[in-house]
Automatic annotation (TrEMBL):
<dbReference type="Pfam" id="PF01529">
    <property type="entry name" value="DHHC"/>
</dbReference>
<dbReference type="InterPro" id="IPR039859">
    <property type="entry name" value="PFA4/ZDH16/20/ERF2-like"/>
</dbReference>
<dbReference type="InterPro" id="IPR001594">
    <property type="entry name" value="Palmitoyltrfase_DHHC"/>
</dbReference>
<protein>
    <recommendedName>
        <fullName>Palmitoyltransferase</fullName>
        <ecNumber>2.3.1.225</ecNumber>
    </recommendedName>
</protein>
<feature type="transmembrane region" description="Helical">
    <location>
        <begin position="73"/>
        <end position="91"/>
    </location>
</feature>
<comment type="similarity">
    <text>Belongs to the DHHC palmitoyltransferase family.</text>
</comment>
<feature type="transmembrane region" description="Helical">
    <location>
        <begin position="171"/>
        <end position="192"/>
    </location>
</feature>
<keyword id="KW-1133">Transmembrane helix</keyword>
<feature type="transmembrane region" description="Helical">
    <location>
        <begin position="45"/>
        <end position="67"/>
    </location>
</feature>
<keyword id="KW-0808">Transferase</keyword>
<feature type="domain" description="Palmitoyltransferase DHHC">
    <location>
        <begin position="128"/>
        <end position="254"/>
    </location>
</feature>
<feature type="transmembrane region" description="Helical">
    <location>
        <begin position="212"/>
        <end position="235"/>
    </location>
</feature>
<keyword id="KW-0812">Transmembrane</keyword>
<keyword id="KW-0472">Membrane</keyword>
<keyword id="KW-0012">Acyltransferase</keyword>
Amino acid sequence: MQSSGHRLRDVEHHPLLNNEEDFDGPSSESELPDQIWFIRDGCGLVCAFITWFLVLYADFVVTFVMLLPSKNFWFALINGVAFNFLAVLALTSHLRTMLTDPGAVPKGNATKEYMDSLQLKPGEVIYKCPKCCSIKPERAHHCSICKRCIRKMDHHCPWVNNCVGESNQKFFVLFTMYISIISAHALILAGFQFFTCVKDQWTECSDFSPPAAVILLIFLCLEALLFLTFTAVMFGTQIHSICNDETEIERLKNEKPTWERRVRWEGMRMVFGGQPSLLWINPFAGLRLRRLLSRTRKGGAEFSV
């Protein structure tokens, strides 16, 4: 067995390494690991906190500065429910992205016993990652922040304090989608609020004083414009990568595919699971909260990294 910095072509030909069941998440609830995936990275934690703070700030301005003082009850109710509902979906998607194992290869599995169990043929070559001492499957890359090899790693995102990989890419796509939607919604509401307040000369359009309301709205517009631009571009990039079955790392390295590509709808079904349905846009799908809470009460929940 060789140890180098690049994946060897012969990896894809070995059935034990190419079988997705060997490295995917547990197939049943009873096989779930007794650990919570969490990356203890200072920069990532700060970025995650900033993300939550900005979303909650936007929710505060939309709800208490613009909608509650509105004279139109149905306008305030419909937009308030819609914005808060989308904000909950966005924050849930963020949590699922951050706390879901992105597809980490078992650490330290490159042992002599495991190598013997692979029953390698003469001349067959597999790759061992020298950093985490694991056998790296096809399309896996080592993340220096997570300190693990990640299957189908797209990139490490500090805003979600985690890698985006095979098992959590769906939640990352949903996060960027919902953030871009609520950013656009906030911009539209802010524009309408400015128009209404100027028309009423800022006398009855808000419970806040005119200077405070203007400052809050200006910061909201800047935040929403920045978030909308960033997340919309990222959402488009992710959808393009999924439809072409090519991760961002593979695109930047200009790697020639040695795997069978699953393009367009087949790639979307692989990431989001099954046929198109509302489950595709539901970040709560597959969440086993009852088991997680029972595991926490028993003291079995631990940090994975």
